[in-house]
Amino acid sequence: MVATPSTAGDIIFRAGTGHTSGDSPSPILLSRAKAALDTHKARVRNHDLLAIADFSKPSRDPRFYLVDLRNGHSTSFLVAHGKGSDPAHSGWVHNFSNTHGSEATSAGAYAVGETYIGQYGESRRLIGLEPQNDQAEARAIVIHPAWYVNQTLIQEQGKIGRSQGCFAFAQSDIAQILQRVAPGTLLYADKV
Protein backbone atom coordinates (compact mmCIF):
# COMPACT_ATOMS: atom_id res chain seq x y z
CA MET A 1 0.00 0.00 0.00
CA VAL A 2 1.31 3.44 -0.95
CA ALA A 3 1.27 6.09 1.78
CA THR A 4 -0.89 9.12 1.05
CA PRO A 5 1.18 12.32 1.00
CA SER A 6 0.34 14.44 4.03
CA THR A 7 1.84 17.77 2.98
CA ALA A 8 2.37 19.66 -0.25
CA GLY A 9 6.11 19.05 0.17
CA ASP A 10 5.51 15.31 -0.16
CA ILE A 11 4.02 15.70 -3.64
CA ILE A 12 6.11 15.47 -6.81
CA PHE A 13 4.95 18.01 -9.40
CA ARG A 14 5.11 17.68 -13.18
CA ALA A 15 4.29 20.73 -15.24
CA GLY A 16 1.63 20.55 -17.93
CA THR A 17 0.87 23.64 -20.00
CA GLY A 18 2.24 27.02 -19.01
CA HIS A 19 5.49 27.55 -17.15
CA THR A 20 7.65 24.56 -16.28
CA SER A 21 8.58 25.89 -12.85
CA GLY A 22 7.66 22.74 -10.94
CA ASP A 23 5.40 24.92 -8.81
CA SER A 24 2.78 23.38 -6.52
CA PRO A 25 -0.67 24.27 -5.23
CA SER A 26 -0.77 26.15 -2.00
CA PRO A 27 -0.31 23.80 0.99
CA ILE A 28 -3.34 25.54 2.51
CA LEU A 29 -5.48 24.67 -0.54
CA LEU A 30 -4.19 21.10 -0.58
CA SER A 31 -5.20 20.78 3.05
CA ARG A 32 -8.63 22.30 2.35
CA ALA A 33 -9.14 20.00 -0.65
CA LYS A 34 -8.27 16.92 1.43
CA ALA A 35 -10.69 18.06 4.14
CA ALA A 36 -13.40 18.57 1.48
CA LEU A 37 -12.72 15.08 0.13
CA ASP A 38 -13.25 13.69 3.63
CA THR A 39 -16.38 15.79 4.21
CA HIS A 40 -17.98 14.85 0.88
CA LYS A 41 -16.71 11.26 0.62
CA ALA A 42 -20.27 9.91 0.32
CA ARG A 43 -20.87 12.04 -2.81
CA VAL A 44 -17.46 11.44 -4.41
CA ARG A 45 -16.45 8.03 -5.81
CA ASN A 46 -12.80 8.70 -6.62
CA HIS A 47 -10.77 9.03 -3.42
CA ASP A 48 -7.40 8.66 -5.17
CA LEU A 49 -7.31 11.93 -7.14
CA LEU A 50 -7.87 15.57 -6.25
CA ALA A 51 -8.35 18.32 -8.82
CA ILE A 52 -7.34 21.68 -7.35
CA ALA A 53 -7.76 25.08 -9.00
CA ASP A 54 -5.38 27.43 -7.17
CA PHE A 55 -6.79 30.84 -8.06
CA SER A 56 -4.15 32.53 -5.89
CA LYS A 57 -2.02 32.38 -9.04
CA PRO A 58 -2.38 34.42 -12.25
CA SER A 59 -4.01 32.93 -15.33
CA ARG A 60 -0.67 32.84 -17.20
CA ASP A 61 0.55 30.11 -14.80
CA PRO A 62 -0.54 26.47 -14.78
CA ARG A 63 -2.73 26.57 -11.67
CA PHE A 64 -5.02 23.57 -12.07
CA TYR A 65 -3.45 20.56 -10.37
CA LEU A 66 -4.30 16.89 -10.64
CA VAL A 67 -2.92 15.37 -7.45
CA ASP A 68 -2.66 11.58 -7.37
CA LEU A 69 -3.05 10.72 -3.69
CA ARG A 70 -1.77 7.16 -4.21
CA ASN A 71 1.73 8.07 -5.36
CA GLY A 72 2.04 11.79 -4.60
CA HIS A 73 2.51 12.84 -8.24
CA SER A 74 0.85 15.92 -9.67
CA THR A 75 0.42 17.51 -13.08
CA SER A 76 -0.48 21.16 -13.66
CA PHE A 77 -2.48 22.85 -16.42
CA LEU A 78 -3.68 26.26 -17.49
CA VAL A 79 -7.29 27.02 -16.51
CA ALA A 80 -9.42 30.10 -17.10
CA HIS A 81 -11.52 31.88 -14.50
CA GLY A 82 -14.74 33.82 -15.00
CA LYS A 83 -15.08 37.36 -16.34
CA GLY A 84 -17.02 38.37 -13.25
CA SER A 85 -14.12 37.29 -11.03
CA ASP A 86 -11.74 39.58 -12.93
CA PRO A 87 -13.75 42.48 -14.43
CA ALA A 88 -10.66 44.49 -15.46
CA HIS A 89 -9.09 41.40 -17.09
CA SER A 90 -5.91 41.65 -15.02
CA GLY A 91 -5.33 37.88 -15.16
CA TRP A 92 -6.03 37.50 -11.43
CA VAL A 93 -9.16 36.31 -9.58
CA HIS A 94 -10.38 39.19 -7.42
CA ASN A 95 -13.66 37.73 -6.19
CA PHE A 96 -15.90 34.67 -6.36
CA SER A 97 -19.65 34.57 -6.83
CA ASN A 98 -22.44 32.01 -6.84
CA THR A 99 -24.97 34.44 -8.30
CA HIS A 100 -26.77 33.85 -11.61
CA GLY A 101 -25.56 36.24 -14.29
CA SER A 102 -22.35 37.14 -12.44
CA GLU A 103 -20.10 35.31 -14.95
CA ALA A 104 -17.81 34.71 -11.95
CA THR A 105 -16.07 31.58 -10.79
CA SER A 106 -17.35 30.03 -7.56
CA ALA A 107 -15.06 28.75 -4.82
CA GLY A 108 -15.45 25.46 -2.94
CA ALA A 109 -15.78 21.75 -3.54
CA TYR A 110 -17.47 20.29 -6.60
CA ALA A 111 -18.38 16.74 -7.56
CA VAL A 112 -17.50 16.14 -11.19
CA GLY A 113 -20.58 15.03 -13.10
CA GLU A 114 -21.36 13.44 -16.43
CA THR A 115 -19.90 14.19 -19.84
CA TYR A 116 -21.97 15.93 -22.51
CA ILE A 117 -21.40 17.55 -25.89
CA GLY A 118 -22.06 21.29 -25.73
CA GLN A 119 -21.21 24.44 -27.67
CA TYR A 120 -17.49 23.98 -26.89
CA GLY A 121 -17.44 20.25 -27.62
CA GLU A 122 -16.93 17.48 -25.09
CA SER A 123 -17.48 18.94 -21.63
CA ARG A 124 -18.22 17.78 -18.09
CA ARG A 125 -20.86 18.97 -15.65
CA LEU A 126 -19.99 20.15 -12.12
CA ILE A 127 -22.15 19.83 -9.01
CA GLY A 128 -21.48 22.40 -6.28
CA LEU A 129 -21.30 20.72 -2.89
CA GLU A 130 -21.17 23.81 -0.67
CA PRO A 131 -23.29 26.93 -0.07
CA GLN A 132 -20.79 29.14 -1.96
CA ASN A 133 -21.11 27.05 -5.16
CA ASP A 134 -24.45 25.22 -4.87
CA GLN A 135 -25.79 27.05 -7.95
CA ALA A 136 -23.11 25.57 -10.25
CA GLU A 137 -25.52 23.27 -12.09
CA ALA A 138 -28.19 25.95 -12.50
CA ARG A 139 -25.52 28.41 -13.72
CA ALA A 140 -24.10 25.78 -16.13
CA ILE A 141 -20.62 25.97 -14.57
CA VAL A 142 -18.72 23.14 -16.28
CA ILE A 143 -15.34 21.90 -17.47
CA HIS A 144 -14.87 22.67 -21.19
CA PRO A 145 -12.19 23.40 -23.80
CA ALA A 146 -11.67 26.97 -24.98
CA TRP A 147 -9.71 28.66 -27.78
CA TYR A 148 -8.71 31.47 -25.37
CA VAL A 149 -6.61 29.17 -23.16
CA ASN A 150 -3.23 28.85 -24.90
CA GLN A 151 0.43 29.81 -24.84
CA THR A 152 0.08 32.26 -27.75
CA LEU A 153 -2.21 34.51 -25.71
CA ILE A 154 0.20 34.35 -22.77
CA GLN A 155 3.05 35.42 -25.04
CA GLU A 156 0.96 38.21 -26.61
CA GLN A 157 -0.85 39.62 -23.58
CA GLY A 158 0.64 37.97 -20.49
CA LYS A 159 -2.57 36.12 -19.60
CA ILE A 160 -5.22 33.81 -21.01
CA GLY A 161 -8.83 34.72 -21.70
CA ARG A 162 -11.75 34.49 -19.29
CA SER A 163 -14.78 32.21 -19.19
CA GLN A 164 -18.31 32.89 -17.99
CA GLY A 165 -17.46 31.22 -14.69
CA CYS A 166 -16.49 27.82 -16.08
CA PHE A 167 -13.24 25.92 -15.71
CA ALA A 168 -11.98 26.30 -19.30
CA PHE A 169 -8.89 24.44 -20.55
CA ALA A 170 -6.63 24.47 -23.59
CA GLN A 171 -7.82 22.39 -26.55
CA SER A 172 -4.54 20.45 -26.29
CA ASP A 173 -5.22 19.53 -22.62
CA ILE A 174 -8.95 18.80 -22.57
CA ALA A 175 -8.65 15.10 -23.51
CA GLN A 176 -6.29 14.47 -20.60
CA ILE A 177 -8.44 16.54 -18.22
CA LEU A 178 -11.60 14.65 -19.19
CA GLN A 179 -9.83 11.31 -18.92
CA ARG A 180 -8.39 11.95 -15.48
CA VAL A 181 -11.05 14.21 -13.94
CA ALA A 182 -13.71 11.57 -14.36
CA PRO A 183 -17.26 11.64 -12.99
CA GLY A 184 -17.13 11.15 -9.23
CA THR A 185 -13.88 13.10 -8.75
CA LEU A 186 -13.65 16.03 -6.33
CA LEU A 187 -12.64 19.39 -7.79
CA TYR A 188 -11.68 22.07 -5.27
CA ALA A 189 -11.33 25.75 -6.20
CA ASP A 190 -10.24 28.65 -4.03
CA LYS A 191 -7.44 31.09 -3.33
CA VAL A 192 -5.44 32.03 -0.25
Could you explain the architecture of this structure?
It is a single chain. The model is unreliable at 1-22 (pLDDT under 50). The relative contact order is 0.22. It is built from four helices and nine strands. A nine-stranded mixed β-sheet has the order 1-4-3-2-9-5-6-7-8. The chain is of the alpha/beta class. It has helices spanning 27-39, 136-139, 151-157, 174-180, and strands spanning 12-15, 49-54, 64-68, 73-77, 108-118, 121-128, 142-145, 167-169, 186-190. The protein is 16% helix and 27% strand.
Question: In a nutshell, what does this entry contain?
Answer:
With about 190 residues, the protein is of the alpha/beta class. The protein has helices at about 25-40, 135-140, 150-155, 175-180; strands at about 10-15, 50-55, 65-70, 75, 110-120, 120-130, 140-145, 165-170, 185-190.
Q: How many β-strand stretches? A: 9
Instruction: Give unreliable regions as ranges.
Output: 1-22
What does the radius of gyration come to?
A: 15 Å
Mean pLDDT: 90
Strand order of the largest sheet: 1-4-3-2-9-5-6-7-8
- N-to-C CA distance: 32 Å
Structural class: alpha/beta
Shape: globular
Q: H/E element string? A: EHEEEEEHEHEHE
Range of strand content: 25-35%
Count of DSSP H/I helices: 4
Helix content: 10-25%
Largest sheet, in brief, is: 9 strands, mixed
